[in-house]
Amino acid sequence: MTPRPSRLPALSLPAVPLAILIGVVLGGLLVLVSGGNPLDAYWRILVGSLAPANWPDTLNWAVPLVGMTIAAAIPLRGGMVNLGGDGQLAIGGFVAAVLPVMLPQILPEAIALPGPVLAALAILAAMLASGLYAALAALGEVRFGIPMLISSLLLSYPAIGVTSYFVGFPLRDTTTGLSQTAMIPEGARLMTISGPLNIGLLMIVAVAALVLYVDRRTVGGYELRMRGLNPRFTAYGGVKPGPQMLRTLFASGAIAGLVGAIIVLGSLYRFQDGALLSPGYTWSGLMAALLAGGEPLGAITAGLFFAALQTGGFAMQRETEIPRVLTMILQAIIILFLAMRHGVGRRG
After folding, report:
1. Residue 12: φ, ψ to 5°
2. For domain 15-342, is the CATH number 1.20.120?
3. What gap in Å lies between CA 301 and CA 291, rounded to an integer?
4. Does the pTM exceed 0.85?
């Protein structure tokens, strides 16, 4: 089928700082109108996120957010949009929670496996399951002409519904009254680095480095960038758009599955219905990726920025009467300004 032209905005460097400045000004005006002190609010956000004592909390929030930012940025780099992050996140977390508990029951030999090996198997299985599920959206566009934007979003609903059913009924921990799986054995949990941080941080750093290397140093990264700039030219140059789309969505979904596995194996220690979705990592990550126009390094930086905003928002809410929803408003204003600016530029 004929590839569609890319709609990914090409953002200039001055646009992002200007968008952030406008977001800060408008957010400050909202605080002022509501009777608060905008300077005090922003100071609390700054201290709450960047004070040395608060770095572990900021980094702990940044691990899943940056992970989902990378998952969104990979297809965006090629002019594609993956809106199915919630479903892929749920599948990854579910598989990572069930495998360490069920595998020893299915294969008695697995009881002798060291905990780290069991955790590694759970992570790999989570990435494989989520990657294959994400690739279904690409397959729908390649084989049946279903726009990926629609299919990736719609595929989230059965993924969330099926995992919710299993943790609510067949696999529910009957010792509790909640929809959640049994606790993961201690040996299969991720090793703690300091405070709330675990080795999931190192995994996300490794993934970020790998994505940057592939983007800038490999043929596949070059071809994906070219697709984002001009898909017709890329296809004319010999790149098969179908297989490229499948590979890209698989990689995006696999990273989302890794994030789900890190949360489950590193902090929750079980799959809880809705727990992976309520913080909104998918949509914050998508906004961060959009802020950078899909460029990996910029997307990672934007993910860290949004993570700092959100952890600072908790501190602001604790110290003042201003709700942390202000930080979500800031994110929305920044993205809306960039989208509006791009639209005005296209009309001109």
Report:
1. -85, 155
2. no
3. 10
4. yes
